[in-house]
Amino acid sequence: MTDSDARLLRALHDEHAPAVWRYVVHLTGDRALAEDIVQETLLRAWRHPSVLDQSEQSARAWLFTVARNLVIDGRRSARAAHEIVTDTVPEERSTDATDAILESWIVADALSTLSVDHRAVIVHAYFAGRTVAETAEQLQIPEGTVKSRLHYGMRALRLALQERGVTR
């Protein structure tokens, strides 16, 4: 394509693209699809330089005809027959309890490998949601002991979970 052809194509675009776009929006009701069809129409004009040599009215008629044919071809295509266009998401993904159950089994299995003392403070603090002071009162041990057992118990739990491929 020569520089003069490129200038003619640019002029063709500037002169006719907005009108072709409005026409395609009128036909389809879809602004994004209209942009795609106008782009394809102008691409076909670029591939057929003889369009650039036509009069302005002939070029415009050619562009409208190509755009109309692209709309018709799009509607007839198998893809269009199977596509459902909607503005809303059909449904949200429902939560499945399967993953949670499997994770709880893995955690329970890992907890069973801990000592009774470590397991007790972890269950009270993390699963029952108690504070260090409440855990100490429930288990009748000093708060410092609860903190220490939590630290070493969590370390052992992390290792047990790593062995099961749950954490890094």
What is the CA-based Rg, rounded?
35 Å
Total helices: the number is 8
CATH architecture of the largest domain: Orthogonal Bundle
What is the structural class? mainly alpha
Which fold name is given in CATH as the topology of the largest domain?
Answer: Rna Polymerase Sigma Factor, Chain: A
Mean pLDDT: 85
What is the helical fraction, as a range of percent? over 70%
Measured by DSSP, the beta-strand proportion falls in under 5%
Q: If you had to describe this structure to a student in words, what would you say it looks like?
A:
The chain has 168 residues and is an all-alpha fold. It has 2 domains: 3-82, Orthogonal Bundle (Rna Polymerase Sigma Factor, Chain: A); 97-163, Winged helix-like DNA-binding domain superfamily/Winged helix DNA-binding domain (Arc Repressor Mutant, subunit A, Orthogonal Bundle). The chain has helices spanning 3-28, 31-47, 56-76, 78-82, 97-112, 116-127, 132-139, 143-163. α1 crosses α3. It is rod-shaped, with a radius of gyration of 35 Å. Belongs to the sigma-70 factor family. ECF subfamily. Keywords: DNA-binding, Sigma factor, Transcription, Transcription regulation. Residues 13-79, 110-158 form the RNA polymerase sigma-70 region domain. This is RNA polymerase sigma factor. InterPro entries: RNA_pol_sigma-70-like, RNA_pol_sigma-70_dom, RNA_pol_sigma70_ECF_CS, RNA_pol_sigma70_r2, RNA_pol_sigma70_r4, RNA_pol_sigma_r2, RNA_pol_sigma_r3/r4-like, WH-like_DNA-bd_sf.
